[in-house]
Specification:
This protein is an alpha/beta fold and about 90 residues long. The chain has three helices and four strands. Strands 1-2-3-4 form a four-stranded mixed β-sheet. A hairpin with a 2-residue loop joins strand 1 and strand 2. The radius of gyration is 12 Å and the shape is globular.
Length: about 90
C-alpha cells in the first residue's frame, strides 16, 4: 500500500509510506484524487517519508496541491525537510 488515509473532522490526512518513483507517480496522484472526491474534505494534510523526498514524491504532492487549489481545499505538506518544504512552496505559489 503506497498511501493510507484517515479522516479527522473535516481534514483528510494522507500518508505516503515510501518515496514514490517515476513509475508509481501517476497511480499515487490518481489515488489522492479519488480520495479527495470521495471524502470531500475541508483541508488536506499530506505526510511524506522523512527526509528528502524524491522528485516523483514531490511531483505527486504538487499535483495534489494544484487539484486541491482548483477545488478551494487547502493542502499542507508534512514530514519533508525544510529544503523540500521550500521546493513545494515554490512550486505551488
Amino acid at each position: 500500500m503506497l498511501i493510507s488515509h484517515s479522516v479527522d473532522g473535516d481534514t483528510l490526512r494522507l500518508a505516503l509510506h515510501q518515496s514514490v518513483d517515476i513509475h508509481a507517480r501517476a497511480a499515487a496522484a490518481k489515488e489522492i484524487e479519488a480520495l479527495v472526491h470521495t471524502h470531500r474534505p475541508g483541508r488536506i494534510t499530506v505526510q511524506v517519508p522523512a527526509g528528502e523526498p524524491t522528485p516523483a514524491t514531490l511531483s505527486v504532492a504538487v499535483r495534489a496541491h494544484r487539484m486541491c487549489k482548483s477545488l478551494d481545499i487547502p493542502l499542507s505538506l508534512t514530514g519533508a525537510t525544510p529544503q523540500a518544504q521550500h521546493l513545494f512552496t515554490a512550486n505551488t505559489a
